[in-house]
Input
Amino acid sequence: MANKIKDAAKKFLLLGQCVPTVKQNATKIRVKRLELDENLLMYFKKDDFYYCYDPNKMCKTGDIVLIKALPQKMTKLITHAVEEVVYPFGDVTDPVTGKKVAKERYREDVDRQSELYGKLDSGFDYKKAPPRGWQEGKKDFTSKPTYTRFHVFDENDPYSI
Output
């Protein structure tokens, strides 16, 4: 019974987060699930990892994406394909209202409060902020190829995981 449920769940759309991977032709997606422990009758967190076909390199590390099972496996590992990027990393959107969020408050509420009480000099302006990806190659290394670190050296390499 449990295998049938797992097989059926893999055929539907899944929502997950993109994590760094060593594979060059695929992206690695972490899907969070709750698994029932039959002895304790409690649910525990469990992460499932899927390698997804992403030819256009739509998703970057940290993005929340929607994935769908392929009709046939492409390779032994690649079983799903990326449908769309639902929420890009760093640009948090409330899923119920669709409004942008800054910490625990809506951005429009922060703007309204700054109009009422005066804008602080140290306040961050989201309207003037450049889009994600403008620091690629300077401080953002998510587009660089990653590799697995097998040895520990004195210098820290930002491209290894």
Observations:
- The longest helix spans residues 107-117.
